[in-house]
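Structure ticket #2291
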Amino acid sequence: MTNWSIEELRENIKRRQIVSQIFAILGLLLIFFALFTLLALTVKMFIDGLPRLSWKFFFSFPSRKPEEAGIFAAWVGTAVVMMMTAVFAIPIGVASGIYLEEYGKKGWLAALIEVNISNLAGVPSIIYGLLALGLFVQDWNLGESILTAGLTLSLLILPVIVVATREAIRAIPNSLREAAYALGASKWQVIWDHLLPYSLGSILTGIIVALSRAIGETAPLITIGALTFIAFLPDPPFTSQFPYISFAWLKSPFTVMPIQMFNWVSRPQAAFQANAAAAGAVLVVMTLLMNGLAIYLRYRLRKGLKW
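Resolution: structure written out below.
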């Protein structure tokens, strides 16, 4: 064993502190560089697209003339597809996370499932598109529809929600569970009345992160047949005849904001490039609103728990 003198120990500690400071400064510079690059690109996109932002742009369908083209079908399609994605992914993802963390037996099967869920979170999105093309479009005959898009994107973000739910529940101290059991609560009462309220903020954050990823996806939707040019809206969900509710809109063709942007970017005219920049600015604002809503809800939930 090496015998260190006091001077050698001091020199070694000093050298390690210098290396640590250099690493911290380098990491900080890299973060600032990445943020500055992202901010510069975002500002340029907003500057290029700002002249095209108007009510006419929001409520006009695509056109061969760039000055008349709009994003009406695209933002409506994005909103409807994200709604369907949330309807499928959130209940299944949260329920799966609760089962795996609280009900599932610990063993080789649970470990295998956990590894596969973690791996699925990193699978390229085009793989989910190919899976959806074979399963939903061809085998289930759902067609190139809003329902197919919602199912496809829900599969894409499901592993993220499951992992976020498990981590949020795992972070709750065992003392809370033990106190509830000591008062005679059942397992489901412990989960519903104690674990979920305290972990809901973190679960909600994971859900919004997952939906923020889904809102910008293009590859899986193109694979299942999303349209690049569409001049009509899906069928309305409400009708004037009994039963006054229609589900025909689930089978309607659709497009979304990223696909509309891709269509415009691929054109050589500068005016279409400005349209793409404006659509990108709208998509960024939609994503920021989703994240802002998540932050507000998480704040309200945590404030309510303190009361």
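Closing remark: The chain has a mean pLDDT of 85.
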